[in-house]
Amino acid sequence: MQSIDFKDDALKEALKIIGYLFVISLIMERAIEVFLSTWRGGEADLKDLEINRLTVQLNELTNANKKSNEINKIKKELKSLNKKRTEYRIKSREIALWTGLIFGIIVGAIGIHTLGAIVNLDKVDNIPQKTTFKIVDIILTGSVLAGGSEAINKIMKVYTNYMKATADIAKDKAKGKST
Questions:
Q1: Is the pTM of this model over 0.85?
Q2: Could you tell me which residues come within 8 angstroms of residue 116 by beta carbon, excluding any fewer than 6 positions away?
Q3: pLDDT, tens digit, for every residue of 6-24?
Q4: Which neighbouring-strand residues pair with 6?
Q5: Do the domain assignments include residue 176?
Q6: I need a surface site. Which of 38, 118, 139, 152 has the fewest CB within 10 A?
């Protein structure tokens, strides 16, 4: 197995690719949101309306000191409906995550790579190693994009904090030498 070298400008390229991935993830998130809203939004709204209706009904019965049998029946129905709504939301998030992963892998497969932007593969002669690297890069890119813009923003913050700390250390060393 041949060692893989980073490009000379890997840190600059990393920041650039993180920015590109951020923009792509915003576009993907919006597309997935439209897709899910079109497909599943109506049913979610109906569940919310029913929950609101039952909540109002429960409040009215409670305020009017009605029979506890009626109140208990509505509480049970409301609990069941809230559970169904939660399960529905979980399923929607699951669909969104899988859709994001698939879209992200497709984006990686068409040539937008996370690791490929910072690593020099030109010197690698080992074809299986190069192929494996590219597959891992595609999956990694897809996973990063599936994590969404918030996750990429966190990565960007870690990077900028690291670069600031490095610059501060260099500045402090330079001040120490000049005094």
A1: no
A2: 133, 134, 137
A3: 999 988 888 899 889 989 9
A4: 119
A5: no
A6: 38
120 backbone dihedrals φ, ψ, rounded to 5°: -95, 100
For residue 179, being part of any structural domain is answered with no
Supply angle C-alpha 4, 8, 14, rounded to 5. Answer: 85
Residues in a beta bridge with 174 = none
**Structural domains in the chain (count):** 1
The DSSP line for the chain is ----EEPTTHHHHHHHHHHHHHHHHHHHHHHHHHHHHHHHHHHHHHHHHHHHHHHHHHHHHHHTT--HHHHHHHHHHHHHHHHHHHHHHHHHHHHHHHHHHHHHHHHHHTT--SSTTTEE-TT---HHHHHHHHHHHHHHHHHHHHHHHHHHHHHHHHHHHHHHHHHHHHHHHHHHHH-
Residue 148, CA atoms < 13 Å, CB-side half-sphere: 11
Q: Quick check: is 178 in a domain?
A: no
Dihedral sign, Cα of residue 167, residue 10, residue 132, residue 156: positive
Which residues of the chain are modeled with pLDDT < 50?
Answer: none
Q: Is residue 177 part of a domain?
A: no
